[in-house]
Amino acid sequence: MNNSVRGTARLLGAGLRALLVLTVVCGVIYPLVVTGIAQAAFHDKANGSEIKAGGRSVGSERLGQTYDLEEKDKDGNPLPDPKFFQPRPSAAGPNTENTRYKLLVSGASNLAADSKVLLDGVERRRTDVAAFNGVSPSSVPVDALTASASGVDPDISPAYARLQAKRVATANHLPAAKVEKLVEDHVDGRVLGFMGEERVNVLRLNVALKELAAAKG
Amino acid sequence: MSPVLSGVLQLTALIAALALVYRPLGDYMARVYGSDKHLRPEKWIYRLIGADPSAEMRWPAYLRGVLAFSVAGVLFLYLLQRVQGILPDSLSLGFTAISPDQAFNTAASFVANTNWQSYSGEQAMGHAVQTLGLAVQNFVSAAVGMAVAIALVRGFARSRTGDLGNFWADLVRGTVRILIPLSVVGALILVACGAIQNFAGIHGIGQLTGGTQQVNGGAVASQEVIKELGTNGGGYFNANSAHPFENPNAFTNLFEAFLILVIPFSLTRTFGRLVGNVKQGYAILATMGLIWLGFTALMMWTEYAGHGAALQAAGGAMEGKEQRFGVGASAIFATTTTLTSTGAVDSFHSSFTGLGGGITLLGMMLGEIAPGGVGSGLYGMLVMAIIAVFIAGLMVGRTPEYLGKKIGTREIKLAACYILITPTLVLGFTALSMALSSPPESILNTAGNSVDGSGAHGFSEVLYAFTSGANNNGSAFAGLNANTPWYNTTIGLAMLLGRFLPMVFVLALAGSLAEQKPVPETAGTLRTEKPLFAGLLVGAILIITGLTYFPALALGPMAEGLS
To answer: B20, B57, B217, B258: which sits with the fewest CB atoms below 10 Å from its CB?
Structure first.
């Protein structure tokens, strides 16, 4: 009995020592080496791909953000700013839309394909987006109607960007053709021509839009 | 280019990349585990552990090593989370200690190579827990799985001995010679594409319309790569591989799917090398590949079709998917992560079509063997191969044999015990959760919230949780609020039992096979390197899993998908 207790203790000791040694190797040396090389070779990307405009940071190219007015609607949700291209719906946070793009919490709605809540949400978004942009409800593309996986999706589909162009042009007193051209210039093709989907990075597009509006003014 | 064509091309590119590294990596791993030389850093490590890496172990000793190391892992990780509150802010990011039930769940989860997460990464775990605790288990739990698989392969390869090699040597070699070098390269590729790698805390960055938004820093790329390579799956962020800091573009998405699959598939080459017949490895590879490809094709079909009232209203299955990936890439990732024991997600399975969600569930229910977790996929598949030769033996009335070893009563008993463990855990805990009063309250998609009032999806949430836990996957129908004492405890137990009980039977099986003397091949021997056997094996896997889980699947995803 005494022997087996001692044997077990010795074995657990070996297990613990192995864990501690491997913790130093995999948990200290490995991340430090990778961080060191990454910071030296890919400094901007390793630190979040921040975009600067007008001498200040305006966000990360990788992360979606909100472009809202100060005003709130009757439910207390901020209203979207018509001067900017709007991102996809976000369900980040504990399954509510009120915390959208609060970056500390990423996540999806997890609503099922046969969910009434999701169905109502899709229909509401269709009406809202159509009214906000002055287009027919049937022309609203799928990415404008569904919440993304991360809740901080930086991209929208080219179709959704094109749909917003006229409204954005009017709100900024710009010729529609110029804004439409801006959108086309910001369409990113599939990676290597076949990976993923075509997309428009909303922050980069809005930064360029702001410059365009400022140059005119 | 149509989205469907893009999806098919991505699948083709992934297969081509896997085929390219199959031989070199498989042969390299065979050399790693077959060599009797120790590298100098490894010798230092053995000295610190106090283990003799050249000492042969019989199966009970090998198992004791596995268990001692894993118990130490659970205790260490549990304590690390419990003391998070008293660590300095630079290490804890100001987060408090994790509650006992959640700390147990998370410790069990990461040691069992599951990476089920009942917490949101960015809201709970600081640098110390993420990097010193979770990322370390990402390496070593994977290395443990590979070690056990190699021990089973040695059981087939060796004769008239009980010796299965040395656990400490297999553990250290898997980590130092395979996982770390691949991870360093992979992590740098991810950073080059835009994944973050820093030790910044939570900090504000500007917004275009003024003001700031809060962002987490972290050693993300280094953790992301081993999370995929070691088929772990625990995300740094709550959104897991959907978060742009973990998975910045469509290339990294495909690269991460490649990382998930590369070791499990290539291990079949290692297996063929070590048993002295690479064709035996090809037969196992063909079986794994066929199931993986079939599932992926089905998944793409159902996701592109986009059935389900809400998805049809939206015009496509884009709920819970990222624009840069789209439907095709998300479908590839979803079957890849659930047919291995990974559980990382680039899109949220709960919002997939009913049938798509069912495919992710069924993938895990197969026991994650196509190609499965690192190591666990291979040993799981070899156990199924034993069952398949047994069935074939019954049909022709011959004593079954596999790789020159007789499959006798003892071997079949051990294999049968192996395949009964996870279904027992999954169905038992699911039934218990549905029968009790409060666990169903965690369900998000309740009957009242569904279009037809069926509540099938709510049942799937619970079934998915235990399927994922007991099979060591870690993905979720994440609408379920699993951070309750009930789910933290039961899923924690399911993960530990679902990981380590099968290992007991695998190692016992390995010991029993290694003791046998080889049976000479005759004209009547079932040729297990032929396509016929691969077909038989696919059939055995699908039939056994189907019979086990059909009633549960009919109540959940099939009811939802066919309504």
So the answer is: B20
Q: Let me know whether A104 and A151 are in one domain.
A: yes
Q: Are residues A125 and A137 in the same domain?
A: yes
Per-residue pLDDT for chain B (563 aa), expressed as one digit of tens each?
899 999 999 999 999 999 999 999 999 999 999 999 999 999 999 999 999 999 999 999 999 999 999 999 999 999 999 999 999 988 888 888 999 999 999 999 999 999 999 887 777 888 899 989 999 999 999 999 999 999 999 999 999 999 999 999 999 999 999 999 999 999 999 999 999 999 988 888 889 998 888 888 899 999 999 999 999 998 899 899 999 999 999 999 999 999 999 999 999 999 999 999 999 999 999 999 999 999 999 999 999 999 999 999 999 999 999 999 999 999 999 999 999 999 999 999 999 999 999 999 999 999 999 999 999 999 999 999 999 999 999 998 888 999 999 999 999 999 999 999 999 999 999 999 999 988 888 998 888 888 888 889 999 999 999 999 999 999 999 889 999 999 999 999 999 999 999 999 999 999 999 999 999 988 888 999 999 999 999 999 999 999 999 999 999 999 988 87
The residue segments making up the domain with residue B40 are 16-276
Q: Does residue B98 lie in a domain region? A: yes
Which residue in B319, B353, B463, B562 has the most chain A C-beta atoms within 10 A of its own C-beta, making it the best mutation to test that interface? B319
B391 and B272, same structural domain? no
Out of A46, A63, A146, name the one closest to residue B244 (CB).
Answer: A63
Domain count for chain A: 2
Domain that holds residue A191: 50-216
Looking at B257, B276, B295, the residue that finishes a domain is: B276
d(CA A80, CA B242): 25
Task: Mark whether A150 and A117 lie in a shared domain.
Answer: yes
Residues B207, B67, single domain; the answer is yes
Q: A34 and B200 in contact by Cβ < 8 A? A: no
Q: Which of B168, B208, B346, B444 to mutate to test the interface with A (most CBs of A within 10 A)?
A: B208
Angle, in degrees to the nearest 10, between helices B456-470 and B409-435: 140
| Same-domain check for residues A193 and A86 | yes
Q: Are A22 and A123 contained in the same domain?
A: no
ipTM over 0.85: yes
Please identify, among A46, A65, A80, the residue that sits at the C-terminal boundary of a domain. Answer: A46
Which sign does the torsion angle of CA B338, B342, B348, B350 carry?
A: positive
Residues of chain A with C-beta less than 8 angstroms from the C-beta of B195: 45
Cα–Cα–Cα angle for B480, B484, B486, nearest 5°?
Answer: 100
Backbone angles phi, psi at A69, to 5 degrees: -85, 165
Does residue A98 share a domain with residue A39?
Answer: no
A23–chain B Cβ distance below 8 A for any pair:
yes
The answer to whether position B1 is within a domain reads: no
Phi, psi of A156 (to 5 degrees): -130, 165
Do residues A175 and A146 share a domain?
Answer: yes
CA–CA dist B20, B68 (Å, integer) = 38
A95 & A33 share domain: no
What is the Cα–Cα distance from B142 to B62, expressed in whole angstroms?
16
Which residues in chain A touch residue B444, judged by CB atoms under 8 angstroms apart? 95, 110-111
Residue B361 is assigned to a structural domain of this protein: no
Specify whether the CB–CB gap between A62 and B243 falls below 8 A.
no
Sequential DSSP letters for B155-171: HHH--S------HHHHH
